[in-house]
Amino acid sequence: MTEPLYRAEQLTRRYRNGGTEVLALDHVDLTIEPGRRLGIVGESGSGKSTLVRLLAGLDRPTSGRIWFEGTEITDLPERRLGFLRAAVQMVFQDPRSSLNPRMRVGDIITEPLRSRLVRRQLPDGIDHARRLAEVLDAVDLPTDSGGRYPHEFSGGQRQRIAIARALAPKPEILIADEPVSALDVSVRAQVLNLLTDLVAAQGLTLIVVSHDLMVVRHLCDQLAVMRQGRIIEQGDTETVYSRPGAEYTRALLAAIPRIRTAG
Ligand code: ADP
For ligand 1, atom 13, which residue shows the shortest CA distance? Predict the structure, then answer.
């Protein structure tokens, strides 16, 4: 049997907010097989971002255990997380705040290649200029984009820059947190189609966090529904859509038209 990409057992994360304690993640068990496209949905505050931060090794669980490709990463010190930093890349919601406005696009995109932890995982002498050209081409941005600054691009193009940056170190897994929520409705479909094509062409595993079930339906073949720090329903996307088991999932699905017209 091949190892799953991720295995999490009883994953729990508590935060202390002043005097009160928040149970952001409550004993979650999860397995992600390579090549899956997993959508994590649920209302705001249900623990989606906490879960993906733990998967990316950006935060540690309060209790429970987590493995990546069979290696336990629960308590690994930062200096030993290089393999995870290279393998997992993230795309965030708002490219305006995730791209440094003072850096040229070429430097933004190749920055992950210069990270000390990631560098050790990459082939020696990886040619940054060549990799930049490859990923600009992959996201359909002009070849000369590298010398320009983020503000010279539209919102949709800036999200393409963020995607190019994530692709630069040749990751195995792309984690996208609300990848199109900050974009104009008119360019959302283009960015979703681009992500779909890239994931297929490069054989990536995709993890998408979204409150928008239409986004997840477009991108993902599996769904995990979160509520109050727990995964309350999980299955392949079409099954969950056509036969939602939980009342909460039915309510999320029923809310789609309202969310769409309000947005
Ligand atoms: P979602 O992504 O589904 O909106 P989050 O994972 O961001 O949910 O948050 C889950 C819960 O944990 C919320 O109650 C949130 O307020 C709390 N939380 C998340 N991050 C922190 C933090 N760094 N400090 C304190 N509380 C946090």
Answer: 45
Q: What is the pTM of this model?
A: 0.92
- From atom 15 of ligand 1, which residue's Cα is the shortest distance away? 45
Q: Give the number of C-alpha atoms closer than 13 A to the C-alpha of residue 30, restricted to the C-beta side.
A: 36
* Residue matched to tokens 């727990």: 230
Please report how the helices 155-167 and 105-114 are oriented relative to each other, as an axis angle in degrees rounded to 10: 20
Kindly list the distances between the CA atom of residue 107 and the CA atoms of 100, 131, 134, 162, 248, in Å, as whole numbers in the listed order. 10, 12, 14, 12, 44
Distance 148 CA to ligand 1 centre (A): 35
Q: Render pLDDT for 9-54 as a digit per residue (tens, 0 to 9).
A: 999 999 998 889 999 999 999 999 999 999 999 999 999 999 999 9
For residue 99, give the 3-state DSSP assignment: coil
65 alpha-carbon distance from chain centroid: 20
Distances from the Cα of 10 to the Cα of 123, 166, 193, angstroms? 36, 29, 35
47 CA from centroid of ligand 1 (Å): 6
